[in-house]
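Reviewers of the previous submission asked for a worked example of the structure-prediction workflow described in the proposal, so we include one complete record here. The input consisted solely of the amino acid sequence. No template or homolog information was supplied to the procedure at any stage.
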Amino acid sequence: MSLFVTGAAGFIGGTFVYEALKRDYKVVGCDNFANSKPETIEKIKKLFPDNFIFCEVDLKNIDDLNKAVENKNISQVIHFAALKSIPESEEFPEKYWENNLDSTANLLNVMKINNIKELIFSSSASVYGQSAKQPITEESKVEPLSVYAQTKASSEELIKKSTSEEALKAISLRYFNPLGAHSDLVVYENPMTKFGNIMPKLIKAFLGMENDFSIFGNDYNTRDGTGERDYLHISDLIEGHFLALSHLKNISNYDVFNLGTGKGVTVLELLNTFEKASGIDIQKNFKNRRLGDVDVCYSDSSKSNKILKWSAKKSLLDMCNDSIQSIKKNIDEL
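From that input alone, the workflow returned the following structure tokens.
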């Protein structure tokens, strides 16, 4: 039996595929390379030629998606594929709804056609919005502020509805903020994307590709005025997926789990830790807040700790060190 992984060339999806193959899973992956690179797939193919099949597929095309899935003996699906930039989602809302929600609907239809009954969905803590109560539990109200977060919340609802109507079991994993790189340094977060997350921006400053590091807002209601987030190591995040895959057999239809450290870190604290790891000082540039950003967002992951037997083990310094080492090793690919 095989796993089907969407977004298999991305930072999170690619790291999952690499680790799954190391654990002797058979994997069928797909990606359209909208915000990822074919080189990631080529590296994984070279390392695992026997257990990995890749199909270049856009999930918006249901016929191509079905061809990628049919007759592959797939038992479980892990759905990573999505556009994920909050600022970009505000600029191009229709693109985000089509890519994130419509594609999820297509995936659910193809799973039904091919009698695949287990799904892990890559969701986001952004679905909670500006929660007054911190830390955030899975019972916290879902109030997404950005278009990106709305597409994730709507995808969750679509999946939940499908589990009530079909013989489908699904778990949504609400990620907080993954950083770092797998210890083998094969898959890494690409710093060259236009709408990158926070670590690629730090890496660009580290490489001298940008003169400074932009911080959007220094007037948040936090201890130093910068936004506070729950950063977790990508390897801890990926471990949560394997534990969730094992837990699917124990649920009746649908469940949700937070994956985070349970500790809030401000942008300035992250910057200070990155400077410590890199050994260089980075110029700060404070800018206005961005639409859709919230003051504080960190997790209560006690449900995952208790039920999935999962916990975040790596430190913020580990995240920074591993990110830097992954770029140093793969600098010629950038």
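The chain has a mean pLDDT of 96. We consider this example representative of the routine output the project will generate in years two and three.
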